[in-house]
Structure formats: C-alpha cells, structure tokens
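REVIEWER CHECKLIST
Item 1: Sequence provided? yes
Item 2: Single chain? yes
Item 3: Sequence as submitted:
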Amino acid sequence: MRAYFSHDDRQYKADQHLQSFFPGDDVFIFLFSGQGLFEDAFLKNMQTAIPQLKAVKNVDRVLSIFTLDHISGTEDGFEVRPLFSQSDWALPRDVRQQVVLDDRIAPGFVVSEDGKALALVVRLEKNLATAQQIEVRTRLFQILKQQNLSSYLTAVSGPSEVVYMQYQAMIDSLNILMPLASFLSFALLIWLFPRVLAIALAGLSIGLSALSAIFVLNVAGQDFTMIHSMIPPMITALATALIIHYYNRIVHYSSLGLLARERSLQAAEDIFKPALYTVLTTAGGLASLSFSPLPTIQSFGLSSAFGVLFMFFVVLILMPPILMRWDRDRPWSKGRGPERFSAFLALSCGRFALRHAGKVLVVVFLMLAVASPFLSRVRVETDVFRFFDEKHRITVDTQTVEDQLSGTITLGVLFETPQVDAFQSPDFLLYLQAFQNWLEGLPEIDESTSMAEIIEDMNWAFHGENPDYRRIPDNQDLVVQYLFFYDGDDLFELTNRDFNAAQVTINLNVHETGEIRRVVEKIETYLREHPYPEVRSTVAGFGSLFARLADMIVKTQIYSLLSALVVIFIFLVFVFRSFGSALLCMVPNISPALITFILMGAFNIWLDIGTAMIASVSVGIAVDDTIHIYHGYISRRRKGCSPVFSLMRSYQHAGRSVVATSLVLGTQFFIIAFSDFAPTSHFGLLSGIGILTALFFDLLVLPALILVLNKYFVRASN
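Item 4: Structure as written out by the authors:
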C-alpha cells in the first residue's frame, strides 16, 4: 500500500511519523483451529516454532499466547509474565483454555472468543519491499510445516498476505495471459503477412519495445506492482498495431511491383509522419499520468510513454534498413481473409456514414444523451478483497479470521506532547479510556487497545486482583510506581519510554475506502471536539492510507485526463496546422473515455486503483487511428480533391489498417479481461471496449461529422 504514495503526501508523512514511535502494521495472521489446540502436542509445537519464526530475517515480533504479556497479582504487588507460561503446563486442557480467555487483550487478538481457534501474528520490519515480504512468507510456511502445524492451519490473512496474493495474481496474469496475447499477435501477423523475416522482425520489435518500458522501471528503482503488470500487454498490442500499418504499406508497394529495397523504404516514408504523430500523441496521453499524485501511476505513465517512443524507433528506424538489406525481392503475399474483411468493413462503414450522415450523428448523440445518467453512478471506491473472486482463498480466509478474531484493517491514533512523562497523568489515561469507550460504540470497529487498559490491569493485579480496582488510579504517584516496575514488552508498543507519545490501535471490520474514510472522519471530528490540553492527535496507519486512496484516485483521473486531452489537442493542432481540424478530431477521441465511464456506472465497476488510468490510456491509444484516417483525408483535400472522394480514398488505404489494428488491440485487451484479478480484468475489458468504441466513432461518426460540417461551411460561405 505504501508503495503507491509519494513521500511528500500528507497522510504518508503521518503514517511514517506514527511508525517512528511504534511498530508497523505489516503482518501475517496464521489462524489454527481443530481438536486438541490446548493439548500438549499442539502447544509444544507452537512454542517450538515461535523462536524459529522470530529468527527469520525481517521479522520484528511474533505475537501469540506464549509471547503476549499477562499481568497478574503477587503477594507483594504484581508480575508481568507470558500469557501462557511454564506453570500453566500443569493445568488441565479446559483450565488452560480459560486462563487464556480470561486475559484482557488476548481474545479477539490471538485467540477466538470461544477458544476454538488460536493465532500466530507475525509482524514484519517496517517498509519492506514486496519481494522481501514474499521471502519472509516462504520461510514462515516452511517452519510451520516442519513443526507439524500445517494440518491445523485454517486461514492466513493480514496486510502482508494480501500483498502476496496481489503479487501472485499479477504473476499468474503475466505468465498465462501475456504468452496468450503474444501468441495471438504472432498468429494474426502470420495470417496477415506469411513471411518468415517479417514475423521474426515483428517478434524482436515487440519484445524489445515491452522490455524497454520495464527497463526504465528497473533503472528508476520502482517496485513492480499490479499496475505495472499492465505495461507488457499494452506495449505488445501497440507495437503489433504499428507493425501492421508498416507491413500493409509494404504489401501495397509490393503489389505495384517494387522490389525489397524500394518498397521497404517507400512504405516507411509513407507512414513515418502519421506514425510519428500517433506515437507522440499516445506517449503524450500516457505521460499525462505523471500528473497523478500516485507515484506508481506516474511511473506507469512515464515508462509506458518511453516504451511507445522506443517502439517507434525500433519499427520505423531500425526495421526498414534490415528489410532493405535482407528481405527477398519476391512479392509479399497477404492473408486474403483478414485483408478483405478489413477493407470491406472500412469501406462499408464509410459509405453508410456518408449516405446517412445526419441520421448517424442524431442517433449517436441521442444514445449518448440517454446513457449519460449512468455517469453519475460511477463510484470512487477501492476494496482490496473485491480485487479477488468471493470464493478466492484470501477472501474466504480473511472472512474466517475476522469472524474468529477481529478486523484486519487497522488504524492508529497518535497522541503527542512536548512534556516528558505527561501521559503518566490519570487525567490523560481517563481521557484515553473515554475515547476507547466512544470508539467501541461505532459499529465499524471491532477492537481498540491503549496503555490505559494495561494501567488498569496493573492496578487490578496490585490490589490482589480485586475487580473493583480494575480502573485508572486517581494517584499519579501510583501510576509512576506501576510503570517503574513494569518489565514487559506490550506497554511500549502503545507508549514510548518518555511517556509523551502514545497510540490507540483500532481494528476495523470494514474494507471499502469510503467506509474507512467515514470512520476516520468521525474519529477526527471527535478529537477536534474533545481535545486534551497541549496534546496533538493524528489518525494514521494502514487504514488511513487506504482511505486516502479514494481522494488520490479522483485527482489522478481529473489531472491525467485533462492533461491528456490538452496535450493531444496541442499535438493535433501542430500536426494538422488547424484549430478546427484538431477540435474535430477530438470528438472520436473523447468517446472512449465517455463510453468507459458510462459502462462503469451501468455495471457498477468502481473507479479504483486498477481503473484510475483507463481514460487517459484509452484517449492516448484512440487518437492513433483518427490521425491515420484524417491525415489521408486532409492530404487529399489540400490537393484539391472533393470531401467525399478524399474520405473514401482515405478509408480505402488507411481504413483497412485501422480496422485491423483496432481489432488486434481490442482482442489483446479482451484477453487480459480473462484475468482472475479484478484490476487487471477491468483494465483489459474497459480498454478493449474503449478501442472498439474509438473504431466505431472513426468509421461512422468522424466521416459523418466531416461531411455535415463541410456542407454547413459551404452554405455559410455562399
């Protein structure tokens, strides 16, 4: 989660400030259930495993009934010992269980309320990279297996387990869907251009283009996240599309009788300008993601933009000389089926749009008007467990852990003051107690813990475990004395040793960012309305970062989409040297984003971390086909050809390539939609729909709009 945030972000700084005093919240929760949990065999195996787990590199602490502090009374005061200590081995099974359940903190934390499940909570060192967390996880499972605990293991959850499952889903998508998308690219290229050298060069170009973007990520030291896993299939699809444009022109000149050298050179010269323009606009659209406040999306945009530019260099700078030198002079054959289909679809749509221009525009804009209310139903929301199917192991396991223990999403409320020992005051401890009582009244909160509870237990134990004394002492000297004799660990995970920083830890039973944000807002409102003198309070932790994501996603969508539209519009003005032409070409390029948002609203697909960049990506890709078509049209118009002739000739030449490339791009994105991981699936599905939407607008709406506007201006000039 923290990898998604800039180090300058307000909430990230608050989170790091909290962690400067107290342990982090990256944990694995191992839940064990079954018969015999409190028998010698299981408990001894667990006890033996704990020091081995603690010895694993990057493990900070292992929390269990053997390591959690328990305060009990003695003849002359109180003692702090492990919750389940050496003396408890002599107790019968039922009594052992009751000893653990009678503890103040353990139930809901390391043991279920009914005693039928026990947990090991393995806390990691702060700010570990994904690879380090996975390495730790592997070793933890090995130890559990060696100690014969695996057969009792019924659920694994926690933030670090979610990180692992996201990583695993990302790798599975890359290992399965990427080869499938690459296979499809090669199959289509072989079908379209059955020529060994052409296919070999295409494969090399596609591979180099995708690797160049990943190389930039590695150089920048960026952790590879689920967002970055979408780069290889996207670059593969774009490179395939550019290669098809180039090879189509070679086929054209080959049919005119040109030999290898001339046709390779002439084809490259023909598409160099429009291809350069399309690459620049696509790169500009992707680079616009750098305006996102989320570093991962920034790096996605910039590395993808570099990959697109490198793709142009490979395909139209390096590939032509190789073909000029090594390609044979024999004519290029072409796949008749796809060629005929592409030409038929392009010309048929062009003719229909020109014959019924007005009707096409009226119908399209009426459909958009009818569907537009769905835009208001787009929800800005993220839930990491909705990234997976409801039957996925992490979803089921997390529900099991939360049913048996408490919520896995955590918050930390930090209290600070410059005055040393200020938090030994009974008044402050009573303030914490009142705050916790209020927290426990919120339905979204399962548990809260603070130093006040430990002080209460000390007072209770000191007075012979009399229930009447399980309260905050009214004498500060007594509190100071208790703290002086305390020799455990748990207290100093809730307050520092200067007693001028303290935290209240909170476990939430909700997962959606909207719900978490509302809880955070309630807590912040309470703290503003009930301040403690000269004490500053801050809400931080994993949950607060997660809630902050919603705001960051909205900013990402607004900044990146607006900047993409501005950058693309400026490019179009430069390319066509006409403000009006640029404005006209923006119509089919805004359509993918508009249709995408309508579909998201209609089918309740959230605007989340996985879909935050779809609009900018779709706009950046959609403009490619528009440029190819409009460039052909405007070039003929400047030579004096009529609008209808210019359009039909443009569709005859560029249209077939546009259809072929759009179908290739759309199909490859639709393959990604088969991923089991929701962010990847939604990215593929919505991007594919965006590509086909852009094709529809390019083939039908663009020519109709050109013709209608041309007639209007002719009448106006007359």
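Item 5: Key structural point noted by reviewer: The first strand starts at residue 27 and ends at 33.
Item 6: Recommendation: ____
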